[in-house]
């Protein structure tokens, strides 16, 4: 690497460092009603069924996908 490489790179990234970054003004309030145990159980079960079950099925049948017919 050349001796000038750090200077050139600093020259390219210098103006980008001075740009203002917009910040989101997000404020939240406490929930109106607390989640119950049944609500949490239903939510976790639905996440399991929607995401983990199909991916588990694909992983368990991976060898049959690799076979050429």
TrEMBL record:
One Pfam family per UniProt: COX8
SUPFAM superfamilies, A to Z: Mitochondrial cytochrome c oxidase subunit VIIIb (aka IX)
Origin superkingdom: Eukaryota
Bilayer disposition of the protein: Single-pass membrane protein
Keywords: Membrane, Mitochondrion, Mitochondrion inner membrane, Transit peptide, Transmembrane, Transmembrane helix, Ubl conjugation
One GO CC term on file: mitochondrial inner membrane
Pathway info: Energy metabolism; oxidative phosphorylation
Subunit structure as annotated in this protein's UniProt entry: Component of the cytochrome c oxidase (complex IV, CIV), a multisubunit enzyme composed of 14 subunits. The complex is composed of a catalytic core of 3 subunits MT-CO1, MT-CO2 and MT-CO3, encoded in the mitochondrial DNA, and 11 supernumerary subunits COX4I, COX5A, COX5B, COX6A, COX6B, COX6C, COX7A, COX7B, COX7C, COX8 and NDUFA4, which are encoded in the nuclear genome. Component of the cytochrome c oxidase (complex IV, CIV), a multisubunit enzyme composed of 14 subunits. The complex is composed of a catalytic core of 3 subunits MT-CO1, MT-CO2 and MT-CO3, encoded in the mitochondrial DNA, and 11 supernumerary subunits COX4I1 (or COX4I2), COX5A, COX5B, COX6A2 (or COX6A1), COX6B1 (or COX6B2), COX6C, COX7A1 (or COX7A2), COX7B, COX7C, COX8B and NDUFA4, which are encoded in the nuclear genome.
Annotated family: Belongs to the cytochrome c oxidase VIII family.
PANTHER family from the UniProt entry: CYTOCHROME C OXIDASE POLYPEPTIDE VIII, CYTOCHROME C OXIDASE SUBUNIT 8A, MITOCHONDRIAL
The protein's name in its UniProt record: Cytochrome c oxidase subunit 8
Upper lineage: Eukaryota, Metazoa, Chordata, Craniata, Vertebrata
Gene name tied to this protein: COX8A
